[in-house]
Amino acid sequence: MEQKKKMPLAAQIFIALIAGVILGLLMQNHAETAEAYIKPFGTIFLNLVKFIVVPIVLFSIMAGILSMRDIRKLGSIGITTLVYYLLTTAFAVTIGMAGGKLFSGFFPALATTDLSYEAAAETSFMDTLVNIFPSNFIAPMSSATMLQVIFMALLLGFAIILVGKEAEPVVTGVNSLNVVFMKCMDMILRLSPIGVFCLICPVVAANGKAILGSLAMVLLAAYICYVVHVLVVYSLTVRTLGGMSPLEFFKKEMPAMIFAFSSASSVGTLPINLEGCERMGVPKEIASFVLPLGATINMDGTAIYQGVCAIFIASCYGIDLTFGQMLTIVLTATLASIGTAGVPGAGMVMLAMVLTSVGLPVDGIALVAGVDRIFDMGRTAVNITGDASCAVVVANMEKKKELRKR
Ligand code: ASP
């Protein structure tokens, strides 16, 4: 019997997006109907995204920390990798916000009926700092105070490592809960086509064609930042720290970049990325540590996307972010990168977290969720290129060290 082939999720999402836009345009005179009867289904989808974000952050960061258990054994390789990953990600989110700011003239303040925002009381840097540390075990999770949840995950993760053998069952538990929540996330993201349709339709109905132009603008801003980050940051690090010509690097990395672009999954691209790094001459033992770790914890493209989208959503709500809020975004997006799974759509879930961390309305995701797949393709290509550049840098540093020893 011939088996019916299922349409890939990406295709379903694109069709839903186009259908949502068309229906939205047709319903411009009936925006309230779209608001009353279509949007609630989009809200259900967003609720599920919000629901999953805390357990995902908690367990995936803990699992990420636990996967680095051998970092001490790996010594300098581990430290170099970690520092490279964190610094490039912090840089990426800064580029994203700068790009978002440059383009913000093109982002409209929207006139939808329910895009309301109550400005959070201005918080100083010191307050932000103090607020990272929770005074209660449950409260951060129930109120989704993300920096505190991240702090808890880091603290628990390191404690488990330090306890050692006695905590083995917890390690298994954390890893397996991580897999379970990832599965939940996967199930929720499978609803993306419905979510996308029901979210984009009322937005287009209420704002007309104008919103399409601004979505194109925010996509353009993100893609320009992706390209700038890849060409400037990775070329520089590969040339100066990795001792390799950027041209050769990109030539050998291209197959992995193309695969990542079309699959939107860092984890799925891992085998091709390993192959690419081998062709660049990165020793196997370095690539097989740096790349899988990168596919789990290093997401420069995702960080750029979060920076751009945070600025975009803030402008749509007519909010000017303070310096403290921007700093918080850099911090959360960098840490969020550790908790972002290398699978399609994960970055959007983490955007919910970044928005919450500075008190921006999570519902703003509705604006960009419809085109998330287009963002995702680019950010995944950047993510895996960052991993490969790190492998080249670490390999070169280790080689130099060996030569010095002789
Ligand atoms: N899809 C991305 C990746 O696999 C993660 C994300 O959604 O940002 O790297």
For the sheet with most strands, the description reads: none
Q: Name the average pLDDT.
A: 86
User: How much β-strand is present in the residues?
Assistant: under 5%
Report the total helices.
18
Structure description:
- This protein has 406 residues and is mainly α.
- 78% of the residues lie in helices and 0% in strands.
- Helix 14 crosses helix 16, helix 14 runs antiparallel to helix 18 and helix 15 packs antiparallel against helix 16.
- The radius of gyration is 21 Å and the shape is globular.
- The chain starts with 8 loop residues before the first helix and ends with a helix.
- The structure holds aspartic acid.
- Aspartic acid binds next to helix 16 and helix 18.
Ordered list of secondary-structure elements with their pairings:
Elements: H1 9-26, H2 31-67, H3 71-74, H4 76-103, H5 125-130, H6 139-142, H7 146-163, H8 168-189, H9 192-207, H10 210-240, H11 246-263, H12 266-279, H13 284-297, H14 300-316, H15 323-339, H16 346-357, H17 365-369, H18 372-405
The structure holds aspartic acid.
The site of aspartic acid (ASP) has 16 residues, from α16 and α18.
Which properties best describe this structure?
single chain, 18 helices, 78% helix, binds aspartic acid
